[in-house]
Amino acid sequence: MNLPTAFFIPGCSILAEATSPAILMSIAKPIVTFATFVPYAVLVSTKLEKDAAYFNLKPQKWAAIFLAFGTAGVLAALLIPTWFAGFPLMIALYAVPCTWYMKFRNQALKGTKAKPLTFLDIDFGKMAADRKAKNAQAGATLRFQKKDRSEQAAPDRKDPAFEVYAGLEAVLLGALDARATRVEIALSKQGAQIQQVVDSMRFKRDPIAGELATRVVDLLKGFAELDPAERRKFQRGTVPIVRDGTRIVLTVTSVGSMQGESIRVDFEREKQLSIPLAKIGMGEQQLKLLVDTITADPRGTVLVGARPGQGLTTLTYALLGRHDSLTSNIKTLERRFERVVEGVEHTDFDAAKSDFGTQLQSIVRRGPDVVFAADVADAGSSKVLCAAGARSTLFYVGMPSDSVPDILAAWLKSVGDPKAAADALRMVVTQRLVRKLCLTCRAPYTPNPAEQKMLGIAAGKPVQIYKQSGKVLIKDQPVDCPTCKGVGFLGCCAVVEALPLDAESRAVLATGDVKGAYMQARRTFKCPSLQDAALLKVRSGETSFDEVKRIFAPPPAPAGAAPAGAAKPAAAPTPGAVATTPVKPTGQKKQ
Length: 591
Hints:
There is one protein chain. This protein has helices spanning 13-18, 28-54, 59-79, 83-108, 124-137, 162-177, 211-223, 269-272, 284-296, 312-321, 356-364, 381-389, 404-415, 418-424, 449-455, 503-510, 514-525, 530-539, 545-551; strands at residues 143-144, 182-188, 191-198, 201-209, 235-243, 246-255, 262-267, 300-305, 330-334, 344-348, 370-373, 394-399, 425-437, 443-445, 465-467, 471-474, 477-480, 489-500. It is an alpha/beta fold. The chain folds into 3 domains: 22-121; 143-268, Beta-Lactamase (2-Layer Sandwich); 277-551, P-loop containing nucleotide triphosphate hydrolases (Rossmann fold, 3-Layer(aba) Sandwich), CATH 3.40.50.300. Strands 1-5-6-7-2-3-4 form a 7-stranded antiparallel sheet, covered by helices on one side. The protein is elongated. The chain starts with 12 loop residues before the first helix and ends in a 40-residue tail after the last helix.
């Protein structure tokens, strides 16, 4: 082999020695050496080390052994002058630790369900495919999983489909970063309007323009195993995602309308609907009164009310969950099934078969102990409840309101007979959701006299309550609280009013006097109203006056509806104006 003339410089013995044929190598030999090292490195890093870590077989020790033998193999191939001697030694040095580990591992796991590991179990083709898929996923932050927990393929950054994938990621990541429990996407010809719900409050987000919006929705529906082409019928599916090692289950619901398709994405909906009754937000006395009332005579009707989006489904499932399914026959008739409560027979209302009242009557004829009816919107449903409740069945009935007088009035109207409606009624339970103060950044202050009076605190008595802040002091500089992201609130709980009706209050209700029956029951049982329950949470430091003011603010009147000089509706309790001040992080745990 001849070197170029530039390598022969007169008077340079070192360069002259470099031209000696003793150290010249062919191009193929280094390539073969490297090609042999790569499978060893892949096998060790993706298979053997992970296996040792999974079964806790001293993974750090084996990692050091694999590294030492790998280094020795490379040095043998490079330093031994005769390549045909160094290369076989390198292969032997690679094989020794792999064989040693497999023998050690199989012996250690002998007698367990673990399958023995041999070289025949190693599929280098699959390992290469997994490596390629991993490289493709490198441009993605979220991993979408199938039902068997294997990952859905993500497009490569150079793939035109990656724009759609990135658009879907942006929608979901924005919601996750804001701690949203739900995202709603409304499609139209112009694109998609997006809203998200954080701690029961709705916030608008930047829209997605043009055809990209439809492609993003279709991709999401495909991941959830829904039909992307179907835009009219109701569809629901789930898809797990993984972010930074955390698995989150998305419930994807598609509904069509005249305005276009709407997509709702709930994060961990099963967990949202699985809150026990004791953790809903009731006070101890409220909870005891509710349980004692239902347990003393388990029949009749319990009206359960809340505004849409204020936890009605969670509350009713919590009430059903407190019944012992081993000793009670529990059934439901729901407009749309949400989740399985253990031991409960759930039934979806089928409008194609018959009306709601007829299907409810069919369930009642089977003699259940407890029944949940989603509502009494259909004529005849409430009459079925009154007749059966007088015998031996306890009914929970959903009502779309959180005002006890309004619920009682709606119940009387639904039944049509005030006496029958009153006789069947046992209790009314209603709630609103209130945001909880972030424990890291909430700011203490002394309430003014007006606030003390609303809280039932004697004038002049020293007391401390809290307000939202959203700021903490780090090196004497106010910054957004890292726990609540500067919002000041973290999570939410229910404010509950639970009001039993005794014989006297039912007698008043039978005359059609809703307000009188309500006041009579309040006097008898000394139950806190919904507003009283909210103020108790202010006093305990769970929430703030501003939050109570927000949830009890009257809804805005339609434009031009109120004439000049008309009486205004009763306002919520108005806290004194208190400036927001940064506080130092308390180090307390997140709610």
